[in-house]
Amino acid sequence: MSHLLHQRAAHLTRRQLFGRTAVGVGAAALGTLLNKSLPAAATTTNHGGLPGLPHFAPKAKRVIYLFQNGAPTHVDLFDYKPKLAEWHGKQIPDSVVGGKRFSTMTGGQTLRPVLKEITQFRQHGESGAWVSSFLPKTAAISDDLCFIKSMHTEAVNHAPAITFLLTGSEMAGRPSMGAWMTYGLGSSSENLPAFVVMTSRDKEASCGQIFYDFYWGSGFLASKYQGVKFRGSGDPVLYLSNPDGVSRETRRGILDDIAQLNELNLQDFGDPEIATRIAQYEMAYQMQASVPELTDLASEPKSVLERYGPDVQRRGSFAYNCLMARRLAERGVQFIQLMHAGWDQHRNLSTQLKIQCQDTDAPSAALVRDLKERGMLDDTLVIWGGEFGRTPFLQGKIEDTQRWGRDHHPYTFSIWMAGGGIQAGKTYGASDEFGFNAVEDRVHVHDLQATVLHLLGIDHQRLTYRFQGRDFRLTDVFGRVLNDIIV
């Protein structure tokens, strides 16, 4: 190995020499300035996170985000509005719509007949939560949930709205929520990533939503903070397996040699991406042993598998991913982001909504029950919801019952949360009598983000990163913690 290092030094170019010298001097000066400004208590590290974090005692150690791409229809699932049945087929009042903008699919539609709920609602549990008949398993755990019925956002199309909810900006390029958490708190697992992502979609492929990598990206943070995607087919993680003929011992030796070369580059240039490369090579080696154990369901009792539904053994399904989420959480993964597409019912609400609920209801409820039975729900925050809601009025014609649908609706929508310091059996906020506008205890996307960080022990105003002359944060320039829903 030593002769390779000598060869490398001998081939050092004049440009590289000046570059390294400049970077080295600048880094040294910067380090001196930073060290002078840091308090003595901030010299300790937190499993690779920032000094001084968490800012206060956290209520949650981990987050499992069950993101429902395409936007579930709040007025058919959680936000019961008898007014819709009363006004069914009639033009929604202009005083309610108030010049609001919609997607191009109904933006020019002059007739906007109110569409009644296509499901049946009933109150459940001691909390009396209203839940659709299409979600019986979720209804059964309603006393463990906190329903927020006054969410509202700013974007009217999927990708900007999802990007806004997950990164704090409608434009791609900002760090995602999981990346911010990993950047601030570091990792508590040595053989699995701190931030894992899994995707799934409805079997009928009725929804054309695309899973963009920036939904779990690190933006301007070092790439080691981005989510690691576990695939639904083939190797769970690309390039994890050794090539044919390469033993684990040989791989260990190769990685050790590469790490030494990368360490030299890191010392010369201080580029955080070199540190990322070193860490990711080592993580991949550790995952060669941890991932097969993670994905082996032989130890799961039959009763648990049945709870997640018939799709639980089909890799890549939402049910399988929910079970994997619990197993990842048990093994120290701190941010688990499941993204399931299939909720974009513009023309097939009458048929596809029920199918979508059948695919997602049991796994979502099973995950909450599973965590609770294992004593993990108290410090695991579970979030279920999409990027916006669906219009209380019909997209299309009222007489064309087979093609009933609802357009995108950012002005109010519903999500639910459980565990991790959230009050159970609570309904927070309300929309108007048509389910059109959030009118009581309105919750903006930045409020939700601020609350998630708060539950993790992070002050959302203090977790910042300077980039291009500005201090950025997940919540941009506003956002409030929803103290009324916190235990």
Task: Provide key terms for this protein.
single chain, 487 residues, alpha/beta, Alkaline Phosphatase, subunit A, 2 domains, nine-stranded mixed β-sheet, two-stranded antiparallel sheet, 14 helices, 17 strands, globular
Plain-language structure description:
By secondary structure, this protein is α/β, with parallel strands linked by helices. It folds into two domains: 58-236 and 298-485, Alkaline Phosphatase, subunit A, CATH 3.40.720; 241-294. Helix content is 35%, strand content 15%. The chain has 14 helices and 17 strands. The protein has helices at 2-10, 14-37, 74-77, 82-86, 94-97, 136-140, 158-167, 177-185, 248-269, 272-294, 302-307, 318-330, 349-373, 445-455, and strands spanning 62-69, 121-124, 129-132, 145-152, 195-201, 228-230, 335-341, 380-385, 389-390, 408-409, 413-418, 426-428, 430-431, 438-440, 443-444, 465-467, 470-472. Strands 1, 4, 5, 6, 7, 8, 11, 12 and 15 form a nine-stranded mixed sheet that branches. A two-stranded antiparallel sheet has the order 2-3. A two-stranded antiparallel ribbon has the order 9-10. Strand 2 (121-124) and strand 3 form a beta hairpin. The longest helix is centred in the last third of the chain and has 25 residues, at 349-373. Mean pLDDT is 89; it is low at 14-46.
